[in-house]
Design a protein that fits this description.
alpha+beta; 48% helix; four-stranded mixed sheet; 195 residues; globular; 8 helices
Length: 195
């Protein structure tokens, strides 16, 4: 893990992206409340192998299961040292789905996928809509289904969110989305700057 930024920097870069892209652009209308309420848990996995990351996912699901949602609504599991190739990451999502099913988490939790090279099926690599899921680092976002259901129930036409997001990002353009990501990634190594 040499030459990687410290954990605080990784989290700061991720928080910057969540605030500037997910919350400010309202790409996920359900994100603002837990973000502003301090109910998002940020975890940086030290995993360098997919099997170790799977263990981290299970540990975080158990922690969410045993923690009051008023304290921790959701977990952002950042894994900068493994699954940096998007196709490998995408394949790993099947392992996560199997873990949720086999581990008895189905109906209780779901996972949103975010990656620096995210690409939706049927899109070109540089299509603006891919930036709805392009994060500074590979991330597995663990969500409570109950909280999601409550948020969706209070939102008119949740089925229109993807369409609206595509329009928003096409209007902003790929260059602006890259710029925001680059600005977040320029947050300096916090540990080094404090010395």
């Amino acid at each position: 893990m040499k030459n990687h930024p410290d954990i605080e920097t990784i989290i700061a870069r991720t928080r910057c992206w969540i605030e500037r892209v997910v919350v400010e652009l309202n790409l996920c209308p359900f994100a603002r409340k837990p973000y502003e309420g301090g109910q998002v848990r940020y975890v940086v996995s030290a995993a360098e192998r997919p099997e170790d990351l799977r263990e981290d996912v299970q540990r975080e699901l158990e922690l969410l299961r045993t923690t009051d949602a008023a304290k921790v609504e959701t977990t952002v599991l950042i894994h900068p040292y493994v699954l940096n190739d998007f196709l490998d990451y995408n394949d790993f999502l099947g392992i996560v789905d199997a873990l949720i099913e086999e581990g008895g988490y189905a109906g209780e939790f779901q996972v949103a996928s975010l990656h620096p090279d995210y690409q939706f099926a049927g899109t070109e690599a540089d299509d603006a809509e891919n930036y709805t899921n392009r994060s500074p680092y590979p991330i597995l976002h663990l969500l409570r289904e109950e909280g999601l259901a409550r948020a969706i129930a209070g939102y008119a036409r949740p089925d229109k969110i993807p369409e609206r997001n595509i329009r928003t990002l096409e209007k902003l353009g790929v260059a602006r989305m890259r710029e925001i990501l680059d600005e977040c990634m320029r947050i300096e190594d916090i540990e080094d700057s404090e010395k």
